[in-house]
Design a protein that fits this description.
- This protein has helices spanning 3-21, 23-26, 47-53; strands at residues 34-38, 67-71, 76-80, 85-89, 93-106, 109-120, 123-126, 129-133, 136-140, 144-149, 165-166, 169-170, 178-184.
- Strand 8 and strand 9 (136-140) form a beta hairpin.
- The protein has three helices and 13 strands; from the N terminus they run ααβαββββββββββββ.
- The chain is an alpha+beta fold.
- It has one domain (3-184).
- Keywords: Signal.
Length: 185
């Protein structure tokens, strides 16, 4: 068997699996190949609903998404804010989201991410992949990864103040890190 026919067979198998995974959205969105929703679309799933349909907590994305797009045939997605968004979590991690982020979504896996970065020491590194492994989420910056309990992501952070603000009042939430699972690749 040639490598091109083997690649075609593999691609066909991946697409078939993907179509099974996105079938919940096929019944709730139009039959075109791209689902597009805005914050005003009350009858369409939100970007946060989309995350949960793929077994991710909604808190992976900050509040304020204005619209999103999903290409169901390959899982490519785009999420849009009015501007960029940044915040700190417990003073340890600084995160930045560009006005548009994108990547590929499948069950328990976000890959090819662009537009999301984390400050590690003095460097800003792009988060390129997020994988759910049971009750933990593993974030990869390419050369290293770290795992965090999924409970850290049940609530959406707010641009500017993260998880430390509610109606202008500060509150303390402990962002847990599983230090034993920080690794270099």
């Amino acid at each position: 068997m040639s490598s091109s026919s083997s690649s075609s067979s593999s691609l066909a198998a991946i697409l078939a699996i993907f179509l099974v995974l996105v079938s919940p959205f096929a019944t709730s969105t139009p039959t075109n190949t791209t689902a597009i929703a805005t914050a005003d679309d009350g009858d369409k799933p939100t970007a946060y609903d989309l995350l949960e349909a793929y077994d991710f907590p909604m808190g992976l994305l900050p509040q304020g998404i204005k619209s999103y797009e999903l290409e169901r045939e390959n899982g490519k997605f785009y999420a849009h804010w009015d501007g960029s968004c940044s915040f700190s979590l417990e003073g340890s991690y600084q995160l930045k989201y560009k006005s548009t982020i994108s990547g590929y979504i499948s069950k328990d896996r976000l890959t090819g991410l662009t537009g999301v970065s984390v400050k590690v020491l003095f460097l800003w590194l792009n988060i390129v992949e997020v994988t759910r492994r049971g009750d933990e989420l593993e974030f990869s910056v390419g050369i290293a990864s770290a795992s965090f309990p999924i409970e850290n992501f049940y609530e959406c952070p707010q641009c500017g103040c993260g998880l430390d603000c509610v109606s202008g009042q500060s509150r303390k939430l402990k962002f847990k890190v599983n230090r034993s699972s920080v690794s270099s690749i």
